[in-house]
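ok so heres the complex, two chains, lmk if somethin looks off
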Amino acid sequence: MLVPTMAVLIVNNYLPMFGVFIAFKNINYIDGILGSPWVGFDNFAFLFNSGSIWRITRNTVGYSLAFMVFNTVLSVAIAVAINELRGRLAKTYQTFLIMPYFLSMIVVGYLAYAFLNADKGFLNSAFLGWFGIDPISWYSEKEYWPYILILVNAWKNVGIGAVIYIAAIAGIDHEYYEAALIDGASKAKQILHITLPLIQPIIVIMTILSMGSVFNTDFGLFYQVPMDSGALYPVTDTVDTYVYRVLMELNDIGMSSAAALAQSVLGFILVLLTNSAVRRINPEQALF
Amino acid sequence: MNVTSIRRENTVSPIANALLNAMFLLLALACVLPVLLVVIVSFTHNDALVNDGYRFFPTKLSWIAYESLFKDYSTLARAYVISIGITVVGTGLSVILMALYAYPISRQDYPFRTFFTFFLFFTMLFNGGVVSKYIVFTQALGLLDSYSALLLPLLIIPFNVIIMRTFFQATIHPALIESARIDGAGEFRIFFRIVLPLSLPVLATMALLGTIVFWNDWFNSLLFIRTEEKYPLQYLMLRVLNDVQYLRSNVQLAAQNPELMSNLPDESLQMAFAVVCMGPILLVYPFFQKYFVKGLTVGAVKG
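and the predicted structre for the whole thing:
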């Protein structure tokens, strides 16, 4: 029973793991992959000397942390608020809120383009005009992009994040609230002292899971939404887009594989660290 | 006081409720408006686009973008066929393979379950990275420009296998398997005749998740697909957005009727294309939402 899936795992996951030795080689097509000479850490030295390492690391980690904090706060807030709604509208709102999750980043790229397009986009042609602001050429001015990216990412993912917390809140025993009511606790107090503490384990688990991917970014968000615009690289270039560009456009296998390996190793260490930190605080909440 | 009256009493005040509703209405609008803008632009006449830009209330409407898209639909239709094919094959294979793996490691009496669980779990912790995968796929396996390269990376989602395992552990009682074995059923018979039919909810959820993943994937096409005839839908969309002329050159209308073509705004054409591509998933997702939410929460709550 296990055999077919083992085969897929080996080909898709384990072979590339052994393939990481590429990062220590100077690949040339005459000698082939196995025959190419070993160069030790030369590829990593090139990576560090190229100057982009600081930029891509800062962007990757910075955006990941910003997304994590911003999305978690918004998702929990929405879940708590939707739980307090009266009537049947809550389900309808939920349907709208998770809609963006089902769209691919390509579609999101189109949606962003409809707003940001320099001469015809909605923001420049209409919205900014209402406030008497001059048009902005969005795809070449980098100072706006951190906000745009955080906003787009939240737009796409907050709804689905909220769904998980809504389910967690639905699982809370009603007796807690009844007891609180008898003790005369206000709605705000109930949220603060019952709802939030009881969904806290879920928040911790979701945070551990996202901590592990702090060095990974949503390639589509950083590649397709800014339309791969060179002027924006200082604020949109992450490890994933960098690796892709160096591999596919510059064809530099050595440097891109060094960056990719560094990303995997750092991610691996980070998962272990977060998990052991959580285990020290509260063993029951650790993943393994 | 009985329970229902307590619950009724324990709600927010009408004013707070109205405020919350207003807030959610705004949030819902924020989710829908970008999609609406794209739809409206696709129907906007060239004159209105040139004069006013993209508007939610255009001054002049036109069908021309859709007319030209559908007049030469071969590129679009081919991409649709490829995407549907990959999604159907990929989802089917993915669900079967994941169930086949999840079931043995869910059984308490299976001696190697710890090893195989770890074998799966380790892939969540560490991966070789894109470059290594690219080299292995193209050089060692020769999958460049092959549809297998689009299927393989997405077949097994370790986290979903863990969810399935948890589901099997929770719903399939060991006594049930034991009694089937006493009745003379083999392992495969037990799996296909007892375990799978009892697990339809989780299988449906996984199928749904798989459908979305395969349908929306384009990164693997970006890496591995070179021939234009093999572009799946999402990748075709990427090309169209990044290169306006690409779509124009694929719409044969230009050769037949240059005058019509000069009136055809690139933007409407792009946006009409986007609408045609995202339409299906937008129409379908509300119906599957329930199962999808159920699946997500099984995974998260049981963690």
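quick notes: The two ends of chain A are 26 Å apart (CA to CA). thats all i got rn
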